[in-house]
Amino acid sequence: ARLSIVLAFALNVFQTQSFLQQFNLFFLGFRFDLKIIAFFYAPVLTIALLCLASNKAFSAFLKLFKFYNALAIFTIFIFAIINFFYFKTYDKCIDAFFFAAGNEDPKAVFLTIIQDYPVITGLIGIVIGLIAISFAYKKLISFLYKHLIYPKKPLSATTLIVLVIFATVGFARGTLFSTFPLRQMHAQVSDKQVINYAIPNGVIAFYWAYNWNKKSASIPNVALEDLKQDFEDLGIKVDSSSFNTLIEPLKVTTESNEFLKTHKPNIIFNVMESMSYHMFTYDNVAAGRDLYGSLRQHAKEDFFFENFLSEGNGTSDSLTRLFVSSPDLNLSTSVYTKKNYIFNIVKIMKQAGYKTIFVTASTASWRNYNNFLVDLGFDEIIERSQVERNYPNFTAGAWGVDDEFLFKQTFKTLLEDISDKPLFIMTLSITNHPPFRVPQGDKLEPLNIPEDIVERFPYKDTKVLFETFRYANDELGKFISKIKASPRFKDNTVIVATGDHNLRGIGYSQYPKELYLGFQVPFYLYLPKAYIENNKIDYDKYRTGSQKDIMRTVLEKTQSNFSFYSLGCDLLSNKPCTFPYAYNSSLGLEQGKDYVCKLEGQDDAYRISQNHVLYVDEKSFKGDCKKLNAFKQLQQDLYHYQVLQK
Length: 646
Hints:
Blueprint: H1 2-9, H2 11-16, H3 19-51, H4 55-90, H5 106-116, H6 119-147, H7 154-173, H8 193-197, H9 202-217, H10 224-233, H11 243-246, E1 251-253, H12 258-262, E2 266-272, H13 277-280, H14 295-301, E3 303-305, E4 308-309, H15 315-324, H16 345-351, E5 355-360, H17 369-376, E6 380-382, H18 384-390, H19 403-416, E7 423-428, H20 451-454, H21 462-485, E8 493-499, E9 523-526, H22 529-533, E10 545-546, H23 550-558, E11 563-565, E12 581-583, E13 587-590, E14 595-598, E15 605-610, E16 615-616, H24 626-643
Parallel strand pairs: 2-7, 2-8, 4-10, 5-6, 5-7
Antiparallel strand pairs: 1-11, 3-9, 8-9, 12-13, 13-14, 14-15, 15-16
């Protein structure tokens, strides 16, 4: 299983490693394999030893052992397969994100697995594999019974048993002589993470993931002094006499603006499923790959930031960070949804005088969002069933209604609103989600996807993947065009769009130079002409940023003399910012620095080798990543402090 992972996902990187590193990968992996085998078989070894005094008891044990042994082999076999396909999708071994699937729609998850993974052929392969293992096992046991030499004398037999026990203990610890047993911190032989991800087997990777998931569910006790230290690590002096004085550096007040005082626009914030900037880099109209569709015109006319990061690496992960700057992707299913979070953008927009609406293409019950969105403060929630009632001709995939009908519903919501308040609408699209399919009614030309691009993706039909991506962008573009063409909305409606995360399965393990690109999503912003003319705008499409900056940028250009708390920067201004970081939970980039910092494991930095599409050098070095790590810690500690308050 380990060899198959290296050959399929890490061969290019593996070939650049020294012989010692290559050897250590498999030798250390073998030690972890022995550790798991010892844990599986230590209990039955103990029972076997207890049964030695009775032939009858030992005969009964042997019969039961056959069943246990088959179960153990099957478990190891299954986890090896799960780990392989998890690696194929996420470029890493099983980790804590694995458990997020438990909060998803079971039917949709099942359909996704059936569509995107070789379930039937895989099951056939498992059966064949188990038959082969069973056959080999019987042959081995038969051979051992005939040829194994074992001691007859009591002293020799006792010595052998003691040696077996010591060996089992040594295998379980991973070592006999070291103070500390072999554990996760030892699973490192290279500065290339993909090599290290290949070390653990499926069972032990699952065990580590389970422990991390369990640990993340517990909230550490954070005191004001801890938060003060976080600020000081960022070079910010604070007054820690109370929480309100301590968070003063987080307060932002927009400039006084006479035009904005009397012209509060509607704001529509579209979160697009898997809107990957990497996918846009394959765009080539001349070669028959128009991946923008109707969005192309708007990306050229308006603000379109390319070197932009999602904060999280899953839909719920990014949404909770957008909503309340929480690093807890399971917040919506926890008991902490009703806390008074200082970064709650719904509460901020209501304080600014907005009516707040959430429109989702999926069911509102997904991950308990029907309750979570209410707790955040949304005035109205529109979900799949309502869209289906309003549009009986709807089309839908496994996860929800298609983007065409999501945007029709959003425009209808704008059109029919009779409140005297401006609207803040957040939408969540779903079509561009596995299993990929081009919705009925899509009239766009087929795309030309050459073989070298097809080989990059793990999906059955890469062409459909690209056409689904293009469909989603085209529907977003048509929605923006509709707003701009409306005399009622074109001059008073701001439109935002970003991806929730990068597309799964592009396969970054073989392409270390794409480290930053692996987390990129675009940030699109439409400001009506009057809002541009009545604001000072400094725009650089290649400026780096992340989703924490979106609402800060929007509020700076739409609200006059308005105060709120934010960790973000105004990306349309060159003014100094308190937290000048393009930040993702896995990596970050400090403004003015020419290298990217990894924020998981060791503090490795990678020099930027190309600026427009941010490629990095393959070789890491020790850069100054202290402030990015301090920022990550501050965000975590702020969240943990708030959830523990009564």
